[in-house]
Structures are given as C-alpha cells and as structure tokens.
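Q: Hi! First time asking for a complex rather than a single chain. Here are the components, and I think there are two in total. Is that enough to go on?
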Amino acid sequence: MKKAVTSAHSCRRQGLASCLVLLLLAGSVLAAPQPGRRVWQRRTPPPADSLLATSLPADAAAQPPLRRPAAARLQELSQQHEFQYTDVTETPANPSLWDRLLSWIWDHLSRLLDTRGGHLVWNTLWYGLMGATLIFAVLKLLQVDITKVFGRAPRALPLAYEMGQENIHELNFADALAQAETAGNLRLAVRLGYLQLLKQLTDRDFIAWQPDKTNQTYLRELAASQPTARPAFAELTRQFEYAWYGELPVSAALYQRVRETQRQFGQQLSGAGRAAHLT
Amino acid sequence: MDPQPLHEPTPLVAQDAELSPALASEAPTNTAPADAATGFVPRTDLSALTGQVAAVRQQIGQVIVGQQDLLELLLVALLADGHVLLEGVPGVAKTLTAKLLARTLDVPFSRIQFTPDLMPADVLGTSIFRPAQGDFEFRPGPIFASVVLIDEINRAPAKTQSALFEVMEERTVTQDGTAHRMTAPFVVLATQNPVEQEGTYRLPEAQLDRFLFKLNVGYPTLAEEVQILQGHHSGFGGTPLEKVKPVLSAQDLTALRQQVGQQRVEANVLEYIAKIVGQTRAHKALYLGASPRASLALLNGAKALAALRGRDFVTPEDVQTLAAPVLRHRIMLTPEREMEGGTPDEVVKAIVQSVEVPR
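A: Yes, that's all I need. Here is the structure of the assembled complex.
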C-alpha cells in the first residue's frame, strides 16, 4: 500500500516538470523576433542637432525648360470655335427689322436678368411656375373644381330652354276664352275653361295650385277637401285630358257640352264656397 | 314601394288598396267609358291589351302577394320592349316574380346565375371545332332566349357584364364576325342585392343605361306578410310555379307592342320629358346626368303605362310616375351629395318638382 502511494507521487512530480519545460520553450519561441512581424518598441528621439546636419541634395537644373508652341500654330488654334470661350453672335449681313427687334429685346432681357436682382426674379418665376404646375396636377388628379374658390357655380351644362311658368292667377280667362272661341280653337277653349276651374278651386282653398302638380294630384286634394265635388271634377279632368293631351278633335257641339259642364261645376263651386264661408 | 308618390301620399280611391297612389291614381277607363256619349273615349281599341294584361296579372296574383306596383312596372317594361333591373334585399320575391312573369309568356325562357368565375362565352355561346367537317360551329349560349333571367347580375366581373352590352341594345350577338340576331321578344330581367358588398362588382354605367327601369323591391306590408304566411300555412298545393299558365304568346306580345308604339304624345308632353331629363344634366347635386336614351326610355315607358291605364295618349302623370324608375340608375350623385346621404330618388323628385307640368 505504501509503495503504491509513493509511485503515484513520483508520477505527479514528473508531469509538473514536463509542463514547466513546455512553457519555457513556448515563451522562448514567442519572444524570438520573426520575419514580417512588427515588434513595437519605444524609439529614442534623435538629437536636436542631427536635423541640421543632414541637408537635401542640390537641384541640378535651376529652371525647368518650357515648351512654347509656334506662333502660327497658336494663331491657328485660337481661330478654332472650340477654343473661343465667349459667345460669338453671328449677325446677318443685312438684318431685317424683325431681326433687329428680336436682338434688341434679347439684349435688354439679358442685361436685366444678368444682374443679382435679375437672377432673383428669374429664380422666383421659375420655382413659382414649377410649384403652380405641381399644384395644378394634384388638383386635376383629385378632380377638385377650383372654380368654386372664386365663387363661381359648379360646372353644369346651361339649360337650353326657358323655365317659364304659367300663372293662372294672371290670366284673363274671359278674354282668352272669347279669343279662342272666335278663332275656332276649341281645344284651347276647353283647356282655358279647365284652367279657370283650377283657379276657382285654388281661390276657394280646395286645392293648392303649384305648377309641378298633375291633374291627378289636384283630384286627390279635392277628394280630401271636397269629396262630393270629386266625381264631377274627375269627369272634367278626363274631358280636358282627352282634348288636350289626347289631341281629340273638339266639334262645336262637343265643346258646347263640355263648356256647359264646366259652367255647372263652377256654379257648384261658388255654392260650396259660400257654404264653406258661412260655416 | 316603387315608385314613390310625388305629392300626396294620401290614397286616392278605395278601389284597390294594394296599389300605391302614384300607380293607382287611374284605373283603366276604356272598359267602361263614362263619357262615351260625348266622344271622350280612346280612338284606339285597347280592350285586347288591357284584357291580356289583366290575364297576366291574374296568373301571377295566384302566387305573389302584393308587389302590385312592381308587377305593373314589369308589364310596362314588357310592353315598352325594355329590360328591367330588380334591386332588393334577399327574400322579397324578386326572382320569383321574374320567373312567374316569364312563365305567363309562351316564349323560350332562360336563367343564368351570375357567378364571379362566369366568362362571356358562358353567356353568349362559343364556336366549337367540328373535326369531321373541318369547320367551326356556333353553339348559342343561354342568352339566346326570349325572356332571360339573370340572377345576381352584380356577382359577375365587368368582363362578363360587358358581354351583355351588344345583345341588350342591338339584340345581336357577334361571334367570329357573324352577327346572330335574337328572336323577338327579347327581355332581360336582372336581379341584384344592394346590401352585400363582398364578392360583388358594380355594374358599368353603360350597362345600367341599357336597362329601361331599375325597380326597387321593398318589403311587404304587414297585411301582405300575414297573407303570405297564411298562404304558406294552408299549403300552396304544389310548386307555386306550376299554378301559373302561359297566357301571352310571342305574337300577342308583338301586336301589343305595336299598339303601344302608336300611342299619341302631345308636343308639350314631349317637351316636358326633354326638360326633366335635361334638368339632370344641369343639376348641382349630380355628377352625371341622363342621356337621350333616358328620354326615349321615359317616352316609351309612358306610352306603355298610358295603354295599361286604358288611354291612347300620354299625360304628364305617366311621365312623373316613371321618372324615378327610368332615371335613378342613369344619374350619378356628386361625392358631396353622396356624403350628405342624398339618394338619386330624392334628386329625381326635386327635378320633377322643378319642371312645370304642361297644361
């Protein structure tokens, strides 16, 4: 047992020794200078007077030689367009009045714009125009009607006709009826008689006259206000519509019958109006 | 309901409670002319027209409850040779009404369900190569029918919708340099849902302009809904479509259309139509006004409506009634007006109120 312990101790001692040898070898290898490897060392500055001692070599040639082109060649080159750095205006031999006017305008413009203020104006105009174009394009894309900004009406086609409205309260029915009867225009006479009845109904507040209302609307209104008068007015409406919209030829005999019916209805209305007034 | 009355919402007469005042203001008068002795009767016999239209109404009325205004305007479009765009939320019987109307006509019917992957050739047809003959043969698409129901038209992209331009306006389909003419009558009834945005495409303006009417289909009234429930509760006795029988042939319809074309329109009424449409081009709230095609649509529609009402002439009332269905899809509000919550119907109403009725 004791023998085994001593042998283990001797083995451990041998391992440590070999490790130490390896470390020493590696350190020597790393410390040795290698080709291509930079070794950083602190430099000692040279003495102050060493700079004065070393001087630059003297210039062998005092002045470099200059190459000068031949005068003829220089003259030839200067005549070429590419070497003329100022604009040469070609003036025609015999300028017309129009050419002279254009030239005068351009001269003045260039003189104006070729100043500091001119440049400012020019730049302002240019950027302003670009900005306006951009805004216009955006508004066009968004389909914005900019005319509204100036208080104008939106774009709409103007009506190709007059929107005049006939007012039955301003018509002189007696004269108009007499004229139509005299002229033999009995269709018109039937129409005027019917309009006269509408006026009477409106005057008595049985219906509310409006130019956009149809005859059927008035019939509904009359049915609500004067139910008893509705059947007679429905028949008169039918006669008017057949004569006017249906373009039915109205004979003298037919007209007499229609006119009589219209008169009777008018008288009924007068009676109904008086009764309504009394109640 | 459609269209809205312009002035008085008060019902006019108690003759037909289902009709709105604007549409029910006049009952057909030719059946019992009150003033026959005095000569104030239609100079054209419209009894066949009104009788056949009444038969169509009666057939559809077996299934559809309410929607009388819608039905009347569909019949007007049918008589005026125009296409109709039906807009409404799901479940208000847009498709059913269109199918029933088609069923009352004894003409070829076709239905196209527009989907996002639908191609123009799927609608119009395509040329197939025949190896035996060594040539191409045109196979007509489902558009080749007399009544075409296009369901959910706004679910197809603009490419497919554009395929309808030519056929809707010119009644021809040009394929490989050959124009294939549609047989008369040719009516497109299209439906769309205004609420849903996902997977839908806005219809091009050019296509919208090709529809005679855009009809807004609203909800039924309480009484109508109760009637619908009662009908379903008691059982219809089979498929609703089977109850409806064809009552109008293509020849009948052509004859009725010719009669409608001969309706009288006084010069002042023509000017009235032009003024209303012209106002849409000058109105401040509108970015785009209606085209002359709208004026023609208003004229043709008014003539058909007058015929349905038993008159052989057009009155301003007919024009006013149809102003909104004709113009609402042909005008575009300005962005400002749209942001304010304005609607095309409001603008049309204001325009109509600003134009004097010729009298």
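A: The two ends of chain B are 28 Å apart (CA to CA). Let me know if you'd like any chain examined more closely.
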